Amino acid sequence: MNNFVSNVVKNMPAYLFSELNRKKKALQEKGVDVIDLGIGAPDLPTPDFIYDVLVKEAKQPANHRYSPYSGTPEFKEAVASFYKNYYGVDLDPNTEVLTLVGTKEGIVNLIQAVINPGDTVLIPDPGYPVYRMGVHLAGGNAVSLPLDKKNGYIPQYEALTKQEREAAKLLFLNYPSNPTAATVELSTFTKAVDFARNHNILLAHDAAYDLVTFDSYQSPSVLQVPNAKDIAIEFGTLSKSYNMTGWRIGYVVGNKEIIHALATLKSNIDTSQFLPIQKAAATALRSDHRTVKENSMIFKQRMEKLHSALAEMGMDAHKPRGTIFLWVGVPSGFTSAEFANKLLDELGIIVTPGTAFGPSGEGHFRISLSVSEERLDEVIKRMKNLDGLGVNPS
Ligand SMILES: *Cc1c(COP(=O)(O)O)cnc(C)c1O
């Protein structure tokens, strides 16, 4: 059978999360009450006002047809109006907005639309694994853009070699960040746009957690940088802000040549998203985002609870201003993978080792806050019994 499978698929690194799922199932079959803090998706339901639109629109036969390839005008106008209201950014819904079947698809297809075999792509390290995988699928050369804790996980362009800077064609950034939960001010994007412009690199910012922020912190858009559209695009999704991971709806905005190239490629691959889903998502984007604030409050409370418990155990975690994650330092004497395995084998707790997000993830692990406070209490109880933490219990 192996002979039928292409080299590109054969050579794909195993998707870590499917491996974790296999281990989780095996433990559950043995009767272990596994607590999964590995899942990168909100556990809360999609708000009713969105779901209601889906139900109503799904009953209309006119909505059972193909969508326009680039998405419905209604959804694209809602994206443009969201950018205007939330960021003060003007977008032409016809040329500067494209509907995506979730941003994962959009990221992988963008790489196909931009990268020739051998081209260099700078990817955040640690970062969302799809960037590296997408570069692999396109036959490109993924180069890690180091992000270090000392500098708040903002890009260290100086750490790249001159040759890497000159070869780069595409650069991915992601704030608020998965997995580090790092957040930035607009100045980080101003620098990124300058860097991209000086080196003739397309800047692709992934804003998956744009609205998942705490208190008064508002995450900036790369398109708030003057003239960023010359050189930048930005991905957005309803998945995390509106708890719509399974709906598969997102968008990309910005530079119109790139949007056009991606739309051309995609028109040969998919035929956009189900019309009622685009209508429901448009309603979400035009709302006052109150439900997102309410959800973010829940994530913040969970974060505070776990953060203070971890701090008490002597574990090192930075307190984030957004996302659904805590990025925690591994106790001394363990690698990320060893510690993640220890938590699973001894406590039945799944976390994601930092190395799943790139070599610079070594020394950390990611906790997803997608479980209830009661489950977090259980996590804390179990972790207090973990020995070998190198923490003085007194
Ligand atoms: C979850 C996530 C995505 C994928 O979102 P979808 O729109 O559901 O495909 C993209 N980027 C990051 C950083 C994410 O965490």
From TrEMBL:
Superkingdom of origin organism: Bacteria
Gene Ontology MF term list: L,L-diaminopimelate aminotransferase activity; pyridoxal phosphate binding
Known cofactor(s): pyridoxal 5'-phosphate
SUPFAM superfamilies: PLP-dependent transferases
This protein's record includes keyword Signal: no
Keyword Transferase on entry: yes
Keywords from the UniProt entry: Aminotransferase, Transferase
CDD domains: AAT_like
Domain Aminotransferase class I/classII large residue range list: 33-382
EC number: 2.6.1.83
PANTHER family: AMINO ACID AMINOTRANSFERASE, L-GLUTAMINE--4-(METHYLSULFANYL)-2-OXOBUTANOATE AMINOTRANSFERASE
Name the record gives this protein: LL-diaminopimelate aminotransferase
